[in-house]
Amino acid sequence: MAKNSVALGAAYEALVVRYLIANGLAIIATNYRCRFGEIDIIASSPDSLIFIEVKYRTANTFGLPEDYLTAAKQRKLIKAAHHFLCENREYQNQPLRFDVIANKNSEIIWIKNAIDCESSWI
């Protein structure tokens, strides 16, 4: 990934964090990394712990950003979430949700429950 792309992605993630806070979520972690992968944002709402994948594309030439959440990427996210929960037991009894936040024509699109954790859980 080019240096400009990394900077643009980081700026977009910072924008998304502000958007989530403005929408009532508390940010627990950003760019959580473990041996299974990375979770862009981990947040909580009054009723859920939310693992968020941020997708940013400058153009939709190769498909929409939300289309880039492949089955393999979903498995990595779920394994990374499991790792987070093992390290942070205080969150283990909360309902879980996996969301995707993408840009579409400079608009933030928030796709809640993008991954069905009931059928996908390890």
Write a short abstract of this structure.
The chain is of the alpha+beta class and 122 residues long. Helix content is 34%, strand content 36%.
Q: Key features?
A:
alpha+beta, five-stranded mixed beta sheet, Trna Endonuclease, Chain: A, domain 1, 122 residues, 34% helix
Report low-confidence residues grouped into runs of 5 or more.
none
* Terminal Cα span: 31 Å
For the record, the CATH class is Alpha Beta
SS-based structural class? alpha+beta
Describe how the helices and strands are arranged.
Layout: H1 3-22, E1 26-34, E2 37-45, E3 48-55, H2 71-87, E4 96-104, E5 107-115, H3 117-120
Parallel strand pairs: 3-4
Antiparallel strand pairs: 1-2, 2-3, 4-5
GO molecular function: endonuclease activity; nucleic acid binding
Pfam family, one: UPF0102
Protein name: UPF0102 protein DFR27_1270
